[in-house]
Amino acid sequence: MRVGVVDYGVGNLGSVLRALASLGAEATALRQPAELAEVDRLVLPGVGSFTTCMGLLDDGGWTTALQRQVQDHGTPLLGICLGMQLLASSGLEGAHRPGGTPGLGLVPGRVVSLASLGCIQRLPHVGWNGVQPAQDDALLGGIPTGTDFYFVHSYGMVPDDSAHLLATTDYGLPVAAVVRHGPVCGTQFHPEKSGRAGFRLLRNFLALVTEPVPC
Q1: If we measure between CA atoms, which residue out of 122, 56, 107, 139 comes closest to residue 213?
Q2: How far apart are CA 168 and CA 89, in angstroms?
Q3: Among residues 81, 125, 181, 185, which one is catalytic?
Q4: Angle CA(161)–CA(165)–CA(171) in degrees, nearest 5?
Q5: Active site includes 81?
Q6: Nearest residue to 109 (alpha-carbon basis) of 162, 148, 57
Q7: Phi-psi group of 74: left, alpha or beta (phi > 0 → left; psi -120 to 50 → alpha; rest → beta)
Q8: Is there a domain that residue 23 lies in?
Q9: Active-site residue, 93 included
Q10: Is 59 part of any domain?
Q11: How far apart are CA 170 and CA 36, in angstroms?
């Protein structure tokens, strides 16, 4: 199983690569959009601001290449933390336009601040928190309700369609923790930093049987 971790200039990819390798995957950092077609699975990490990271994806030619690889070829993609948020249609973090910065649009929805949703807890949300499934899905197979995962974020995704919301976490209000639209998956938490449960989710992702996302 060849897994490519998109290296578009943000974050330390080492922990993600090591986690995937420990599960038997042939994990490599991808530094050019043309390399997307050379792997069986894709992982999109993210650190920083939605607008800044989308700018890096746009400038590096990743945006269109990722959309085509998923929509035309059905390559499974896992977004992690901010990488999950980038899957949305738009995001308000750092945006310079009223409707927000356009995202990848692979999971229809928007990314907004947790405070704007009514969260009165301390932000950013940092630390371990339990995850509650919203529906059955192979991505969550073998992971008990209430299992703790490691979170670091101040913004959250609000999917347009509840069918794409697989699990939530309670941080004063329900917050999207796992999303999926066909082969496109996202976790707001860091599975690579979440111990055995996180590794189980990564193993489930590697085993997914999927179909392309409709254009």
Answers
A1: 107
A2: 19
A3: 81
A4: 120
A5: yes
A6: 162
A7: left
A8: yes
A9: no
A10: yes
A11: 35
Domain that holds residue 29: 2-207
- Return the ∠ at Cα 17 (arms to 14 and 19), rounded to 5°: 105
Residues 6+ apart with CB under 8 A from 68: none
187 contacts 156 by C-beta, under 8 angstroms = no
The partner residues of 148 in beta bridges, in order of sequence, read 130
The catalytically annotated residue of 26, 164, 192, 215 is 192
Q: End-to-end CA distance of the chain, in Å?
A: 26
d(C-alpha 71, C-alpha 49), whole Å: 25
Alpha-helical (H) ranges within the chain are: 14-22, 50-59, 62-73, 82-85, 195-207
pLDDT digits (tens, 9 = 90+) for 179-213: 999 999 999 999 999 999 999 999 999 999 766 66
Q: From the candidates 125, 181, 190, 215, which is the catalytic residue?
A: 190
* Residue 150, token pair as written in the block: 């490691």
125 part of the active site: no
Instruction: Output the pTM of the full model.
Output: 0.96
Token pair 């990819």 is found at 13
Let me know if residue 30 belongs to a domain: yes
Answer yes or no: is 91 within a domain: yes
CATH of the domain at 84: 3.40.50.880
Q: What is the pLDDT of residues 22-74, one digit of tens each?
A: 999 999 999 999 999 999 999 999 999 999 999 999 999 999 999 999 999 99
